[in-house]
Amino acid sequence: MSYDFGVLTPESVGIGGQEALAAAVVAFEQDHFADAEQDRRLRDFVTDLEEAGAADEENGWVSVWPLNIGQDGVAIPTTYADVDSNLITLLRLAARHGLVLVDLNAETVHPPAAGEPIAVMAGDGTRLGALTQERLQALLANLPPSDPWLVLERKSNLYVQANRQSDGTFLFECRDGSSDQHYQSRVPDQGEVARRMWAWITGEANWSADFPWERVTF
Questions:
Q1: Alpha-carbon distance 29 to 75, whole Å?
Q2: Nearest CA-CA partner of 72 in 111, 114, 42
Q3: Which residues pair with 76 in a beta bridge?
Q4: Which of 57, 147, 156, 159 has the fewest CB atoms lying closer than 10 Å?
Q5: C-alpha–C-alpha distance, residues 158 and 171, integer Å
Q6: Nearest CA to 88 among 7, 26, 155?
Q7: Read out DSSP for 29-41?
Q8: Contact 56, 89 (CB under 8 A)
Q9: Rounded to the nearest 5°, which phi and psi values hold at 132?
Q10: pLDDT tens-place string over residues 74-99
Q11: Which residues pair with 120 in a beta bridge?
């Protein structure tokens, strides 16, 4: 039993969700595509998926490897161990290569998001694979009172996150690998959080300058 995704070229999907769902089902039955010419975007996506550790012998979460890349799509059966984390990794990689992600179990279709490829998780249930500066600002402005947090992740253990506090300030954290590279700071307002997060996304060298960082201990 697996949790199944399909990644498809946008040209093969059509204009509606039902077409995308049907094409994803075909991707799971595509043995007849074995000798067809593979789309380079799909090949590059699978290469990035392997580099992200999805096929790791001990900690991998793709149920079958190697994947059978078809002409228009690739089927990705995954474990149920951490569906949400798997989803955002697939969203980020699909957005990087301009591909459509279909969640067959949930019957949802995710066109490639616009903007910088980054995994996005928010307390309101938002899950994205890319982000524009405008969408980032909107997400921060509309954090729900019950779960006022936002996480941006490049890969496992490489992320920034913000949690709005009751006084309107934000607890801002960054992690750059191992647990001893996890820091936090208090940020006074939403605008500063948005500016710092966008600078981190775009790789500005001084994005974290002038912050009174404290190491987070676990």
A1: 9
A2: 42
A3: 5
A4: 57
A5: 17
A6: 155
A7: T-GGGTTSPPPHH
A8: no
A9: -100, 165
A10: 999 999 988 988 999 999 999 999 99
A11: 128, 152
Distance between CA 82 and CA 176 in Å, rounded?
21
The reported pLDDT for the residue numbered 71 is: 82
Preceding omega of 111 cis (within 30 degrees of 0): no
Residue 197: its pLDDT value, please? 96
DSSP 62-91: BSSSS--B-SSEEEEEE-STTHHHHHHHHH
Q: How far apart are CA 30 and CA 20, in angstroms?
A: 15
Give the span between the Cα atoms of 182 and 174, in whole angstroms: 6
Count of CB atoms within 10 A of residue 147's CB?
13
In one-letter notation, the amino acid at residue 3 is Y
Query: Per the confidence metrics, is the pTM higher than 0.85?
Result: no
Q: Is the pLDDT of residue 162 over 90?
A: yes
Of residues 27 and 177, more confidence is placed in 177
φ/ψ of 32, rounded to 5, equals: -75, -5
SS3 at position 94: helix
* The amino acid at 33: F
Rounded to 10 deg, the angle between the 40-51 and 83-96 helix axes is 140
Residue 22 is which amino acid? A
∠ CA 29-83-77, rounded to 5°:
20
